[in-house]
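Here is the promised in-class demo. Please do not try to memorize the tokens; focus on the logic of going from shape to residues.
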């Protein structure tokens, strides 16, 4: 069985993307996933001066080690002004300093949601390019617009439930081909 890790690119305690991620993890059929709460990491804002004086932060080294042993990732990204949040961008900046191909051979399922009708699609596009640049393979992605109208703890609205199910199935089938 593939080793999968999952995390959300938001540092909000009420993150709607984390809610979508947790819902998605509970819907997995063929996979077991280790969830990593990035909010618990202690990471300064990236700076070459900090890197020169203190090196790579220990929490980044630990996260990189977890990525290294995983074969796949499920990542929920939140959108701030059309890109990933500064919190998550900072983490990816530090990770890229450990290895310019820190996602090499990693299969990735990307998720995103937003309160608005765009469903964080700009962020998904940005993150796809970002992750591919660092060697990752995006197996599938899912965008949920208008979170408050289309999500509840019991499930997604009929308009989007099948789309998420298909994305998860594609991801799991890619990891465990018949």
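The designed amino acids, position by position:
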């Amino acid at each position: 069985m593939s080793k999968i890790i999952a995390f959300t690119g938001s540092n909000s305690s009420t993150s709607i993307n984390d809610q979508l991620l947790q819902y998605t993890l509970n819907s997995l059929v063929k996979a077991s996933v280790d969830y990593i709460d990035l909010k618990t990491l202690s990471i300064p804002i990236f700076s070459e001066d900090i890197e020169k004086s203190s090196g790579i932060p220990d929490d980044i080294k630990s996260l990189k080690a977890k990525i290294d042993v995983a074969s796949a990732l499920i990542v929920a990204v939140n959108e701030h002004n059309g890109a990933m949040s500064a919190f998550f961008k900072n983490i990816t900046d530090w990770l890229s300093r450990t290895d310019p191909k820190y996602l090499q051979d990693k299969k990735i399922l990307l998720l995103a949601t937003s309160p608005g009708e765009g469903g964080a699609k700009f962020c998904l596009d940005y993150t796809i390019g970002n992750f591919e640049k660092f060697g990752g393979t995006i197996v599938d992605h899912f965008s949920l617009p208008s979170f408050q109208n289309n999500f509840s703890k019991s499930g997604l609205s009929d308009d989007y439930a099948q789309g998420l199910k298909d994305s998860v199935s594609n991801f799991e089938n890619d990891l465990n081909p018949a």
